[in-house]
Amino acid sequence: MNLYIQNHKFHYELENLTRLFYPNEKITVIKDAADLKEPYINTVIDDKLKVEVKIGDFSRTLSSGLSAEAENERILCEMVYKILCEKTGVIQLWGMITGVRPVKLYRSLKKENGEAYADDYFKNKLFVSDNKLNLTKVTEKIEKKIIDTSSEKSCSLYIGIPFCPSRCKYCSFVQASIERCKHLVEPYVDLLCRELKETAGIISKLNLKLESVYMGGGTPTSLSAEQLSMILKTVNSSFDTKNIREFTVEAGRPDTITEAKLISLKENNVDRISINPQTLNDEVLKEIGRKHTTAQTLASYELASKFGFKCVNMDLIAGLPGDTYSSFKNTLDRVCKLNPECVTVHTLSMKRSSALTQDGTQINKEDSERAAKMLEYAEKKLFEDEYLPYYLYRQSRMVGNLENTGWSKSGVESLYNIFVMDETHTIFGCGAGAVTKLKDPHSNYLKRIFNFKYPYEYIDRFNEQLERKEEIYSFYSKCLNYRFSR
């Protein structure tokens, strides 16, 4: 599909919008061209706004008068959206929204202009369905209560473990097989502990309050119990822990969970863990490259339940290859019967570098409709079982342009998930692939400091990463007029 951009700079949003309707096609963006090659979407700003679409025998043109720049972008998108809805017959439940954080957008509109305005904008300007608007509104109310507890000096900590037992077919994260990279694990853990100590010193000098800690990956429990203990002890001994409100470790793969590792987590003040089956259909597990079974998931959950963690979360994915509506329904029903404190329902995202995409798997209309039906059932079932949506986000190339939603029993919502999605306060990132996101509490300004992605890079160029942390001091000095001695 050729997307022509004539005399304007709104190519990014228009490209993402076009991809909603043509997820399997290459979208070629062409600027200021005279000759149009079919199939094409031609977007023009001159004395008016105009969109021309020619795809096979289908041809449509819409135009509108000029407006303010931001509104010109929305109107161009609206015209493209309406034409492509007509051409494809596809109903986008999130309307024209392509961004990651619809709840944050809704909250901003509500804060600036009131709830009625935000509702109207979502429904009549962005064409969001009533169901997704309601999901947004409920989530926003729960998020706001937690966001309001964050102060100017609040911060959180992310610890990245880039190792997994194997790589799932849908995964695009930078990670390494624990078997293939055994030689990297020990030096990685040693250097990660050094980085944690350095970061603890920075937080102390800035007089910030560490409120949530999240260890993710990868699969942190790919490490041995001794290695986990080493990292966790470093956190507890290096940071001021009196303000920590939650400490999460994403155990993830059920086949990596052992009694020794759970003891290590519990002894080191971890109060939240995840056990992520993704599905309880063994055939689907094989299809997506997971090395565990449903029986292992259930056994791991039973084992973990004996340790009295404040929260056990279970992740599921709607739209997995080979999964049917009936199978997904069976999975969710069985998970709800276990009664975990949190359930996170993701939608399959077809990332460019995932094995699924590389193997040529495509998204069709039936896949999108089936995934939407799965999420519809999940919402109904989870509300009935007294779970509430407490955070929500979206990714590019999601089946059906749908969403990921965290559901929680009242009072055990993950603070970190809300803080990171809302970009509420600074998140310090340690480990390979981690990103430190420095947040000015008095504006929306964010500065990102990236760690090296791959474990071998992280190890080989470790000192460069420590040098980058000097940028943290300059950020706080400029944005917040901090004064400190080092």
Please describe what this structure looks like.
43% of the residues lie in helices and 21% in strands. It has helices at 11-21, 69-88, 102-113, 115-125, 130-147, 182-205, 225-238, 259-267, 282-288, 294-305, 325-338, 355-358, 365-384, 415-422, 455-460, 462-468, 470-480, and strands at residues 2-6, 28-31, 40-45, 49-55, 58-64, 154-161, 163-164, 176-177, 209-217, 246-252, 272-275, 311-318, 342-347, 388-393, 404-408, 426-430, 435-439, 446-450. Strands 14-15-13-12-11-10-9-6-16 form a 9-stranded mixed β-sheet, sandwiched between helices. The longest helix is centred in the middle third of the chain and has 24 residues, at 182-205. 43% of the residues are buried.
List its traits.
single chain; 486 residues; alpha/beta; Double Stranded RNA Binding Domain; pyruvate-formate lyase- activating enzyme; 5-stranded mixed sheet; 17 helices; 18 strands
According to CATH, the homologous superfamily of the largest domain is: tm_1862 like domain
Shape, principal axes of CA atoms = globular
| Poorly predicted runs of 5 or more residues | none
Strand proportion: 15-25%
